[in-house]
Amino acid sequence: MDLELAEVADAVLFDELGIAVVAADGGQLEALRAAAAAPDVAVLSVEPELVHHALDSEDTVAEIARPANGAAATEDAEHFLDTPEFTWGLQATRTTSSACSGRGVRIAVLDTGLDLTHPDFHGRTITAQSFIPGAAPQDGHGHGTHCVGTACGPATVGGTRRYGVAHEADIFVGKVLSDQGSGVDGGILAGIEWAIANGCQIVSMSLGADVASVSVAYETVGQRALAAGVLIVAAAGNNANRAAGRPGLVGVPANSPSIMAVAAVDPDLGLANFSAASNPVVGGQIDVAAPGVRVFSTVPMPVRYGSKNGTSMATPHVAGIAALWCEKTGRTGRDLWSLLTQHSRRLALPSLDVGAGLIQASG
């Protein structure tokens, strides 16, 4: 796609996704809505273009949300710690005992890009593309580099612990959020189409908009992706404040029935204070949970490493683990989704908050 031309065009059509992004005045908008209401016109829905944001959290105070009785089941009464060898997240998800590496699997991380100068990714197969007009795929924010590190970071790094899940996966970096951490539907949809066209089996999106209703556009995309053997995982959202009694809700695009919504847990396997609860709309439920508090991973140089909180940090854990299962079983799309939920670890928390439970790596 020629992004400069797309930026000034009246409409951009994504053939593979069945979606168009259109600049329309009032009269044109009414005509489009009338077409969507007509029985003989192939327009499913007309929706406003949304602005999405990177979903990390500054919440470091009230990190734990306990069940109503204040207790955890005996099997979950444990505490994970980063060690010199592994992050707590890799331990909790059993990634440390997996014989798989993601070899032969392509993961697309659609985010703020990647620090392409980062030494931890030297020698890896990386394909990078920007969908932010006028911007290169280089990460000027930090969020994308952190997410890529968790999903695909190396198995061994001199001087620090292992933090990456699928350490031999092929990395596809789509910059769909600006260096200010935001992006619109047009760029995100372009990134998804690019990932599908490049044969990526997994798409990781740690982004979202706090909109309760399901987007027909993203649900259409999710269905087409699954049919093509592509699993899209997305951050549930950080709009909760559990300590203050506000559960929040899963927003767009994670609330789409065909996109896997990921919640965040902490090192005690308690629910993160910021992690959004299931949304009562069809498809708005949490599907799985993953480590999302004090997650250690890569950040742009010269700092090199850092810890972040957010459902954004949980999502690339799921993407990386999906790659391990894909490598082991050859399953993709809906079959891969089923495999991930079937093997998740049940937690002493409501399914409205954590879905099938804590994601677990293949053996």
From TrEMBL:
Signal peptide: none annotated. The keyword Cell inner membrane does not apply. PROSITE patterns: SUBTILASE, SUBTILASE_ASP, SUBTILASE_SER. One of its GO terms (cellular component) is extracellular space. InterPro entries: Peptidase_S8/S53_dom, Peptidase_S8/S53_dom_sf, Peptidase_S8_Asp-AS, Peptidase_S8_Ser-AS, Peptidase_S8_subtilisin-like, Peptidase_S8_subtilisin-rel. Pfam families: Peptidase_S8. The active site is at D111, H143, S312. Residues 102-329 form the Peptidase S8/S53 domain. One of its GO terms (molecular function) is serine-type endopeptidase activity. One of its GO terms (biological process) is proteolysis. The keyword NADP does not apply. Belongs to the peptidase S8 family. This is Subtilase family protein.
